[in-house]
Design brief:
By secondary structure, this protein is an alpha/beta fold. It has helices at about 15-25, 50-55, 80-90, 145-155, and strands at about 1-5, 30-35, 60-65, 70-75, 95-100, 105-110, 125, 140. It has one domain: P-loop containing nucleotide triphosphate hydrolases (Rossmann fold, 3-Layer(aba) Sandwich).
């Protein structure tokens, strides 16, 4: 399993781009997972619902399961996201992370406006159709999921 983080300022189009990239990678035969970074104030479960109440009662993990979907909820005290990705997604070919700019994953910046993160944060490439001051040697990719999939195959997946 390989992982790459797509980073960028809020509103840069990370989610939109990943939602265009995932079907391209799937069509190429890859099993793809995602992980999204959110602030600690975001509660992924629904307060008052049974699963939330189970966690409040002390369950270490709560699996919400139906014939169509599943979700695993757990509380943690700062364990590194890489450990969870390895534990729960190691059977996949590629995990696309949204955010996690401080983590030790290879990163690709999705850039729209403002000061680019490239140069302050090491990145493999920048996805943009806008002019920006990107440090020399960092590839600039168009926001074309086919082109980015080619780049991922070459640089991350080792195809």
């Amino acid at each position: 399993m390989k992982a790459v983080a797509f980073i960028g300022h809020k509103g840069s189009g990370k989610t939109t781009f990943l939602c265009r990239l995932i079907p391209v990678l799937r069509a190429r035969g890859y099993r793809v997972g995602t992980a999204k970074h959110v602030g600690p104030e975001v509660e992924p479960d629904t307060p008052g619902k049974d699963t939330y109440r189970h966690r409040e009662a002390g369950a270490e993990r709560v699996l919400l399961y139906s014939e169509a979907h599943g979700a695993l909820f757990w509380d943690h005290e700062g364990e590194d996201v890489a450990a969870y990705i390895h534990r729960y997604m190691s059977d996949l070919d590629l995990v696309l992370l949204e955010g996690f700019k401080s983590e030790e994953f290879p990163k690709i910046e999705v850039y729209r406006t403002g000061e680019p993160l490239a140069g302050r944060i090491p990145v493999l490439a920048v996805i943009t159709e806008h002019r920006a001051r990107i440090p020399d040697g960092i590839p600039i990719l168009p926001p074309d999921p086919e082109v980015v999939a080619d780049f991922l195959e070459s640089e991350i997946l080792g195809e």
